[in-house]
Amino acid sequence: MDVRFDTKSAAREAVWDALEDEGIARFPFPPHGRIPNFEGAPAAAERLFEEPPFTGARRLKVNPDAPQRHVRIEALRRGCVVFVPTPRLRGGFKRLDPASISDDETKPAASLSKMDRWAEPVALDDLPPLDAIVTGSVAVTTGGHRCGKGEGYSDLEYAILRELGHDPVPVATTVHSRQRVASVPTDPHDLPLARIVTPEQTIDVADPPAPPTGIDWTALSAADLEEMPVLRELRG
């Protein structure tokens, strides 16, 4: 989509409309208001693991949205421990350890609605160093910019890791090619992409934007702190 958008909301609406109108969106419907699932998501997940650092990754953080379920499945099949943020970060993070998940259990364990049977809660201090991060996106640019569904949780999750002293790691996203746009507005706290993977193509960003160094507390409201205990824990 060779369009330069003046606002992130305009980019989101254009992508959501295109995925729906062109029959690319997959369950859950409608694609609007969410990280959209898309035709070819399993192929994009497989392609993601064809190159380092994902090929030999032992620990990944993967978002809980529908299209990245295939990333979670592929990671578990490869023996990779997967850390999943709980929706809206209300419960912090969960760990899926393939050592305690049988082959037949991999698919349900990777499903957000069923994973609690296998997932273990992880305290912030117990989050280990990660090899890489996979995030969902609504719109992306080949320059490494992205926008999610507008709630900022992926940005915040990365900032939490930096606040905990974790080193920056590569961030990738799996999307449909119709989710690529020419440009979107950016903010200092935005999560930068190092790799964009579609079912047909892997795009390594030549010069990814600088990642956040920690949490921008001035951007958070009292309601945010009330809703997300993990933030109150960090702030002390």
UniProtKB/TrEMBL annotation:
It comes from Salinibacter ruber (strain DSM 13855 / M31). It holds the Pfam family 5-FTHF_cyc-lig. The lineage of its organism: Bacteria, Pseudomonadati, Rhodothermota, Rhodothermia, Rhodothermales. InterPro entries: FTHF_cligase, FTHF_cligase-like_sf, NagB/RpiA_transferase-like. This is 5-formyltetrahydrofolate cyclo-ligase. GO terms for cellular component: cytoplasm. It comes from the Bacteria.
